[in-house]
Amino acid sequence: MKFSHKYSVSSPTEMYKYQRTALSGLHQEPPCFEHPKMMTVPTHNTIGSVFAWLFASDNSRERRLLLWDIFSLIILVPLAMMGTSLGMKVLNNNVGTMTGIVLAYTRFLQLSMACATLTLDAGILTWTIVRLQYHFLHWYDWYKRNCKVILLGYPEPEAPLGVQHVSSATVREMRF
């Protein structure tokens, strides 16, 4: 559906706002309809939720992946540190009294070692950041799914209702 507009829209965000405004006039909600107001309450505090996430029964794959990532870091970080220190020692060689061919070869070796050192360090740093983001997003997804949603403006039920008596009109809390 094409929208014609008099004013220029400079960004996709402004275009989206313009389209939402144009569509809101086409599809009006009935006057008696209102969106339910709700409040999300976490079931765990932030630090406690990390341990709850690790020990949850449905996260055995996540625990295994996190354990492998920790072991990989324990092995890779010392190797990267040794490679970096070796690369820096090669770069600090004194090349003042060498002949032309040996000097060119030594300079090439120094450049190669500097590139290899930077590549190794950047690769390990990138891998670490990607894995941290992966684990953080899985924890955050679990954290959001384990929040309690309270619908505001609805009365509390007088007595606890059995499962067979619960209807959507009487539900006040939902767990995800």
Task: Write a short abstract of this structure.
This protein has 176 residues and is mainly α. It has helices at 12-26, 46-55, 60-91, 100-145; strands spanning 37-42, 147-152, 173-175.
Topology:
Elements (H helix, E strand, L loop, with lengths): L11 H15 L10 E6 L3 H10 L4 H32 L8 H46 L1 E6 L20 E3 L1
Protein name: E3 ubiquitin-protein ligase MARCH2
Keywords: Membrane, Transmembrane, Transmembrane helix
Structural description of this entry:
With 176 residues, the protein is mainly alpha-helical. The chain has one domain (12-175). The protein has helices spanning 12-26, 46-55, 60-91, 100-145, and strands at residues 37-42, 147-152, 173-175. It has a 3-stranded antiparallel beta sheet with strand order 1-2-3. The longest helix has 46 residues, at 100-145. The chain is elongated. The protein starts with 11 loop residues before the first helix and ends with a strand. The model has no long low-confidence stretch (mean pLDDT 75). Keywords: Membrane, Transmembrane, Transmembrane helix. It comes from Lygus hesperus. This is E3 ubiquitin-protein ligase MARCH2. The chain crosses the membrane at residues 65-88, 108-130.
